[in-house]
Amino acid sequence: MPGPLADGRPAADLLADLARLRAGDLPVRGGRVTAYVYDTGRPEIHDAAARAYLDLLEVNCLDPTAFPSIVALERDVVGAVADRLGGGPDTPGIFTSGGTESILLAVKAAREASPVDGTPQIVAPSTAHPAFHKAAHYLGMEVVTVPVDPATYRADPAATAAALTPRTVLVVASAPSYPQGVLDPVADLARIAADAGVLCHVDACVGGWVLPWLRENGRDVPPFDLSVPGVTSLSCDLHKYGYAPKGASVVLFADPALRRRAYFASAGWPGYTVVNATAQSSRSAGPLGAAWVTLRAVGADGYRRLAADAMDAVDRLAAGVARIPGLRVLGTPDAPLVAVASDDPGLDVFVIADAARSLGWYFQPQLSFQGVPANLHITLTGVSAVGPMLAALAEAVDAARAAGPAAVPDGLAEFVAGLDLDALDDHQFAELLTATGDGGMAAVNAVLDALPPATREALLIRFLSALYAGAV
């Protein structure tokens, strides 16, 4: 590994090799990884989803007329999601591989539904997910970024209205935004969009399948879904707070005509008929089957309990963070997402993250941006053990305070910013990483934090290339 393909080997040996490779991965159960993974705490449900995934693994969603089960399953999943998110049983939607693909399809639909002279524009708050920038990059569009309120981190309706132009085809709202877990003023943004004759997409990828249950539990959740006048599409990930295996999201549309704008068909060749509901062509029905089983196994009562437990964990975590000198929570989370920042110059959140990792906990570093300080993102679920989490966080804070901020060699950030990265091959770039010394990821993040976003992006792309080239 890597190497030429050899003769076939026994399956047991290959699975043993796979287990050894997995040994260095973060754990996907137990709640110590506060990003990327979601755990119900009910292994029987995860096992049932895995069996459903395997049962449909080789069913190809490329042609729903060949495999009618996928139509039935998708209609049921989309209908269940729409029922909780302001739609009816016939609300049009598409099952996708994840939030990025759901957003990509919503952006494509908006572009197709609203032809403009020049480059189409998306108006989005600075906290909107990068998936909108990715969609714009792929679809020949541009994103007009609007700063958020510096105290609440919510989108600014007045600034959004001022950013609209004749080329605007879509206004974006987040429910909630990922960085701080706060809900944008969806009704205000949707009204502004509707008054201008512009479509409005609500990115509820992370919150869409927890906010409705929080409302049913008595939490104050402002309207954010398809029931809000002016909202024309909405995305909701089921592999987040739906607790389904990865590869499960839904994008809903206010009317079938807009959904059709998301589709793709091609008949300009002598082969089989091509019509795709998603950005993919061939794709396994495994995630669809697993999502269907998970939704039906957890059920409404289960989701209400999981949501209540997750939000209770937020309250306890926020209270605990307030008792740790030097730390504060950014904003007031509306969903089970918390951003923890430092107000002590001698306490570096990137060093805290490294120290926590050594204790077996993963807190996700987030770089500073447009006045939002660097912080640690923590996604809480129904199985989050807040007591041990706070204990680990406090211990990591003590270690970080003793160690001091990440040591970055003088002038390194400026030197990196002036590099011609295209002149370096992957191995030369990997050697450059050694210039951060033995400061771990904290030093790497500190360098990135000192650079403008465009330079950060160029470095991240080079890092990914070097990683897959085996240079790092």
Keywords:
alpha/beta, Aspartate Aminotransferase, domain 1, 13 strands, 472 residues, 16 helices, four-stranded antiparallel sheet, seven-stranded mixed sheet, 43% helix
Describe the secondary structure blueprint for this structure.
Blueprint: H1 11-22, H2 43-55, H3 68-84, E1 93-96, H4 99-113, E2 121-125, H5 131-139, E3 142-146, H6 157-163, E4 168-174, H7 186-195, E5 199-203, H8 211-216, E6 233-237, E7 249-253, H9 256-262, E8 264-266, E9 274-276, H10 286-322, E10 327-329, E11 337-342, H11 349-358, E12 364-366, E13 375-379, H12 386-403, H13 412-417, H14 426-433, H15 440-449, H16 453-468
Parallel strand pairs: 2-3, 2-4, 4-5, 5-6
Antiparallel strand pairs: 1-7, 6-7, 8-9, 10-11, 11-13, 12-13
Helix pairs in contact: 2-10, 3-10, 4-5, 4-9, 10-12, 11-12, 11-15, 14-16
Beginning-to-end CA distance, first to last residue: 15 Å
- Number of helical runs? 16
Strand numbers in spatial order across the main sheet: 1-7-6-5-4-2-3
Structural class: alpha/beta
Keywords: Lyase, Pyridoxal phosphate
Cofactor: pyridoxal 5'-phosphate
EC number: 4.1.1.15
GO molecular function: aromatic-L-amino-acid decarboxylase activity; glutamate decarboxylase activity; pyridoxal phosphate binding
How does this structure look, described?
The chain has 16 helices and 13 strands. The radius of gyration is 23 Å and the shape is globular. The mean pLDDT is 95. With 472 residues, it is an alpha/beta fold. Helix content is 43%, strand content 12%. It has helices at residues 11-22, 43-55, 68-84, 99-113, 131-139, 157-163, 186-195, 211-216, 256-262, 286-322, 349-358, 386-403, 412-417, 426-433, 440-449, 453-468, and strands at 93-96, 121-125, 142-146, 168-174, 199-203, 233-237, 249-253, 264-266, 274-276, 327-329, 337-342, 364-366, 375-379. The two termini are 15 Å apart. Helix 7 links the parallel strand 4 and strand 5 (199-203). Among the domains are: 298-403, Aspartate Aminotransferase, domain 1 (Alpha-Beta Complex); 412-468, no CATH class. The strands form 3 sheets. Strands 1-7-6-5-4-2-3 form a 7-stranded mixed β-sheet, with helices on both faces.
